[in-house]
Amino acid sequence: MAKQEINPLTPDKKEDIKLVSPTMTAAGVKALTKSLEHMRNEMTASSCTKTLFSLNQKGGIDCPGCAWPDPDDRSALGEYCENGVKAIAEEATKKKADPDFFAKHSVADMSTWSDYEIGKSGRITHPMVLRSGDTHYSTIDWNEAFTLIADQLKNLPSPNEAIFYTSGRTSNEAAFLYQLMVRKYGTNNLPDCSNMCHEASGVALSNTVGIGKGSVRLEDFYIADLILVIGQNPGTNHPRMLTALSKAKENNAKIITVNPLTETGLLTFKHPQKMSHMLGGGVKLTDLYLNLNINTDAALLKCMLKMLLVKEEASPGTVFDLEFISDRTTGYDDLVKDLKNYEIDVLLDKCGVEREKVETAVDWIASSKKIIICWAMGITQHENSVSIIQEIVNLLLAKGSIGIPGGGTCPVRGHSNVQGDRTVGIWEKIHDHLKVNLKKNYGFQPPLEEGYNVVRAIDAMAKQKAKVFFAMGGNFLSATPDTNYTAKGLQTCDLTVHVSTKPNRSHLVHGKTALILPCLGRTEIDVQESGEQFVSVENSMGIVHSSQGTLDPKSSELKSEPAIIAGLASALFDDEQVDWKGMIGNYDLIRDAIEINVPGFDEYNKRVRNPEGFYLPNSARDRTFNEDGKAKFTVNGLSQHNLADDEYLMMTVRSHDQYNTTIYGLDDRYRGIENGRRVLFMNPKDVKKDGLKKGDYVDISSHYDGQERIAKSFMVVPYDIPEGNLATYFPETNVLVPYDRYGKKSQTPISKSIVVKVEKK
Ligand SMILES: Nc1nc2c(c(=O)[nH]1)N[C@H]1C(S)=C(S)[C@@H](COP(=O)(O)OP(=O)(O)OC[C@H]3O[C@@H](n4cnc5c(=O)[nH]c(N)nc54)[C@H](O)[C@@H]3O)O[C@H]1N2
Ligand SMILES: Nc1nc2c(c(=O)[nH]1)N[C@H]1C(S)=C(S)[C@@H](COP(=O)(O)OP(=O)(O)OC[C@H]3O[C@@H](n4cnc5c(=O)[nH]c(N)nc54)[C@H](O)[C@@H]3O)O[C@H]1N2
Ligand SMILES: [Mo]
Fold first, then answer.
1. Rounded distance from Cα 140 to ligand 1 centre (Å)
2. How far is the C-alpha of 587 from the C-alpha of 9, rounded, in Å?
3. What residues contact 435, with CB distance under 8 A and at least 6 apart?
4. Which of 432, 606, 651, 728 could bond 752 through an S-S bridge, CB–CB 3.0 to 4.6 Å?
């Protein structure tokens, strides 16, 4: 059979989309019924019971849904939310993508399916291979697969021609072993999903407060005076955060939301496990909603700082914390000098928020001390993300609100262990302590030169500088920018390998030889030589805790992620420096290895067995900033877009029914969308201006450096979004994002500010 061309894009068939009234209350009864529906459709009854009662319980399964922490006073029912349950149902599904499935469907056929259809095919049960010229994946023995990969790696002229990607679900144990294998092999090519996610937060926070993580604890939410939620949609992406916000409200905190869209999840919340919420009207969360233009947060924050400065100068010491500023910071005078260069009216005009609303926000900030600022992808995926986050830090520093009970920074992480992966060594740069410790403890010189991050990895493959691509989880093809260019890169590789739980589009757009290595999921029991194992993860607030599955593995052929790494490492190296076999026989030995290589993990095996886990050290929380102990104010510019008359600024967001590239369903009930995903949210005035109407189909294009990129067949949805701004769902529009346009200093793709044109079909 002749090999067919594979289209790497999500098929652009017109969908039968229904536009309905958005649900205006987050969670509530609907969330419960939706959760149960997903579980019933995907799982057996006994799996439902075994997982639900263990989810986010102390010593139970850490929810793979997001990185929000669990409260210590969680109920006997555990802490879960609608989207956590969907994540579990997706993994613990009874459907199987087994060898018969792969024999029946060719790679070319599967590539014409939607992401939803591909994902719903079920759990992969056997290691699969696609050799050069094959049309279908077929089974391969584990040892043969390891030898195949090891041979390819050994034959590369340089270890830097191999790339080792990580998605953020990987446990600390697997991540540590993985980076150990990769660095022993000789490269720092360890791109990870963080490069597309909170990289800018890490860079900006390290640069200013000396540690790339947030400073608040969950308990701080309960005593805060004021919480700002900027560029984040927790109702969909971190639903358990709504419980913390509602608790803050009960304790009289005020909440300000900054977002171009009025997100239902931030308006009213009904806790599905609280009778008072369910019977009453729920809790009103946001007190003040600032609907700004996309990518104008720096202007808004500067405007707030300037208004605060006016108040401070009128009555010194009443608004800013002058003692903290003089004792614990540097750069305040430069900040003040720089603020004088800006006009309030010009800043207000740029962000498009009414003056009175900003003044109210400023009054609240002026009179509050315990201020928490939360942010996520609405802030981190722009060219000037690092600057915006540094402006957030400026505000908190001026107020003396970092490192106090009830105040501080809160970058809300995405993947459930993305923060932990970085802590234990997944990074294209190498931590200073690993440079020293890997040599000391394992006797090899780790590579020191910087490896490829995500955008560099794409370019290296497309330019044939890298020939082997290995992914520990994730969906590199669809999650990354510039889908066609990424596809070209993957397709020119000699070998692509994916350690995965379920099929995704990255398995279909592959190198000359391709492997899928099926692994255990979080929900499953992991038995090794010394018995049943658990793994550990770090949440958004720096707590490390255990996670242990309760379900029987979907197939006896599945291996755990650590076992896959150890299997490959044993085929790759024949020296005795690292006891791979011993470590996977008993994960305590991996944790011992982490303890001696990574600071902060003293008595890891003991402390991880505390039901609540343990906090990693956090210098910003303790108010020790940087080497000189001082935090830095910074001077930052504003974003510039200079759009032509027919251009828009477009953000790509998540629907309520997806987990990144995994599509749980086709509805986004908080935004009134049913049965489809190819929608373009547009201001009604813009719809009219472009001669369009509700329900029309359009193509969207971008034109960076004269190159046209097109995403086809999107339905126009008139929506409450500022004029000149558009929104679509990712990954359908990733094809429009040029791989070489990214955040300064963070190299995070500009997924939230893409300049595009809209054309009627
Ligand atoms: N159910 C579910 N949970 C998830 C995920 C998922 O896909 N599904 N993904 C996980 C991952 S990896 C991550 S990183 C997080 C993502 O969590 P979020 O960051 O909440 O995800 P997004 O949908 O990208 O939403 C970004 C929000 O930013 C707003 N926004 C966009 N541009 C701007 C801007 O310029 N300024 C401001 N102020 N706001 C802006 C959008 O309107 C939207 O409300 O969630 C994690 N949890
Ligand atoms: N345009 C645009 N692009 C974006 C974003 C955006 O907002 N807009 N967001 C970015 C962000 S924040 C992120 S984090 C990335 C996400 O990028 P990735 O992390 O690469 O993508 P996911 O969709 O989360 O990966 C899903 C796949 O992971 C596999 N998987 C699930 N569980 C496991 C497991 O336990 N082990 C293993 N080995 N595999 C597993 C399954 O096969 C599944 O198909 O996308 C980025 N891309
Ligand atoms: Mo993310």
1. 39
2. 40
3. 446, 448
4. 651
How would you classify residue 430: left for phi > 0, otherwise alpha for psi between -120 and 50, otherwise beta? beta
So what's the pLDDT on residue 2? 47
Whether 286 contacts 268, CB under 8 Å: no
For residue 376, the CA-to-ligand 1 centroid distance in Å is: 6
By three-state DSSP, how is residue 713 classified?
Answer: strand
SS3 409: strand
What is the value of pTM for the model shown? 0.97
Q: 517 in ligand 2 pocket by Cβ < 6 Å?
A: no
What is the identity of the amino acid at 535?
A: V
CA distances from 16 to 590, 666, 673, 687, 698 (A): 51, 11, 11, 20, 15
- pLDDT, position 75: 60
* 3-class DSSP state of 100: helix
Quickly state the pLDDT bin for 242 (edges 50, 70, 90). very high
Pocket-testing residue among 419, 505, 661, ligand 2, by greatest number of atoms within 8 A of Cβ: 661
Measured distance CA(284)–CA(287) in Å, rounded: 8
Which tokens hold the place of 409? 């920074």
Q: Tell me how far the alpha carbon of residue 191 lies from the centroid of ligand 3, in angstroms.
A: 13
- The protein residue whose alpha carbon is closest to atom 38 in ligand 1 is 231
Tell me the pLDDT tens digit for each residue of 174-210.
999 999 999 999 999 999 999 999 999 999 999 999 9
Angle of CA points 677, 693, 15, to nearest 5° = 25
* Cα 530 from Cα 587, distance rounded (Å): 9
Position 30 confidence tier, pLDDT thresholds 50, 70, 90: confident
**Number of the ligand closest to the Cα of 415:** 1
682 lines ligand 2 (CB under 6 A): no
Cβ neighbour number for residue 97 with a 10 Å cutoff = 29
Residues within a 6 A CB radius of ligand 1:
65-66, 83, 197, 230-233, 236-238, 258-261, 263, 294-295, 297, 376-378, 414-415, 651, 653-654, 658-660, 752
Domains and CATH numbers, the chain: 46-194+417-615 (3.40.50.740), 199-411 (3.40.228.10), 648-760 (2.40.40.20)
Q: Is the pLDDT at 578 greater than 50, yes or no?
A: yes
User: Is 80 exceeded by the pLDDT of residue 277?
Assistant: no
Task: Compute CA distances 699 → 16, 705, 710, whole Å.
Answer: 17, 19, 7
278 pLDDT band, cuts 50/70/90, is: low
Q: What is the mean pLDDT of the chain?
A: 95
Gap between the Cα atoms of 553 and 530, Å rounded? 18
Rounded to a whole number of angstroms, the distance between the first and last alpha carbons of the chain is 35
pLDDT digit string (tens) for 313-365?
999 999 999 999 999 999 999 999 999 999 999 999 999 999 999 999 999 99
Angle separating helix axes 385-399 and 199-209, nearest 10 degrees: 40
Residue 1: pLDDT above 60?
A: no
